[in-house]
Amino acid sequence: MREGHEGTGPGAITPDGCAVDLYTRLPVGDEPDIVTGAVPTGAHILELGCGAGRITHPLLQRGFTVTAVDESADMLAHVRGARTICAPIERLDLGEKFDVVMLASFLVHAGDTEVRRGLLRTCARHVAKDGCVLIQREGPDYHSNVPRERVDPSGFTVRIVSAEPVGDGVNAVRAEYRFPDAVWTQTFLARPLSREQFEEALAEAGLEVDTYLTPDGTWVRALPAA
Q1: Dist. CA 59–CA 190, nearest whole Å
Q2: For the whole model, what pTM was predicted?
Q3: Of the candidates 58, 54, 42, 49, which has an alpha carbon nearest to the alpha carbon of residue 99?
């Protein structure tokens, strides 16, 4: 288990506190639409932190080729139709370049600055010269608008219970997922980043923002710096 991370509930728990059985149940949102609108048709996507394939499988159905990476073999066991690689993202070096590198799930907000740097260096190392990097970042109120909850149309409730400062600008965030037959929780460390801080972190890795893809600024397309 990564320091500061914890998960509870039925089934296997990954090193960052994610419950595998939970992630096999979570429905896909608008992520495949965002990706499809931002990258070339049929692109080869390196998906970093693919989990159980929640986004992977819709992308495959839309004609993309996907190389799916996760540090959890239990998660990867649920991925079908993609090349899978089990490895910590921040140390990944495949010696290959991809049309698109995708870093979703707010991973760029890793509490450990060195881990974040490693994640972004991995993105920069694997993106083709004329390719792009898609990054999902937190909204401006993610750590202040707590507690908050959302009832999903499919019948479960996700609740962000708390975001407590633990020092050095990092918060311990606790999330809860309630289904009719099971409850899972996850506690993880996250570092809020202003837009300026986010762009500085990209620049440090040799990347620069091309465009913010969504009105709330949570999805970003970045390019290798000129």
Answers
A1: 27
A2: 0.97
A3: 42
The token pair that represents 26 in the structure block: 């979570």
CA distance 32 to 122: 22
Retrieve residue 226's tokens.
Answer: 């000129």
How far is Cα 171 from Cα 136, in angstroms, rounded to an integer? Answer: 18
DSSP state of 25: H
For residues 203 and 197, the answer to whether their CB atoms sit within 8 Å is no
The Cα 95–Cα 23 span in angstroms is: 29
Within the chain, strands assigned E span 6-8, 44-48, 65-70, 83-86, 98-103, 127-136, 148-151, 157-167, 170-179, 182-190, 207-212, 219-224
SS3 category, 110: strand
Walk across the sheet containing 6-8 and list its strands.
Answer: 6-8, 182-190, 170-179, 157-167, 148-151
pLDDT in tens, 119-141: 999 999 999 999 999 999 999 99
Strands 6-8 and 182-190, sheet pairing: antiparallel
How do strand 170-179 and strand 148-151 relate by DSSP bridges?
A: unpaired
Residue 226 — pLDDT band, cuts 50, 70, 90?
confident
Length of the chain: 226
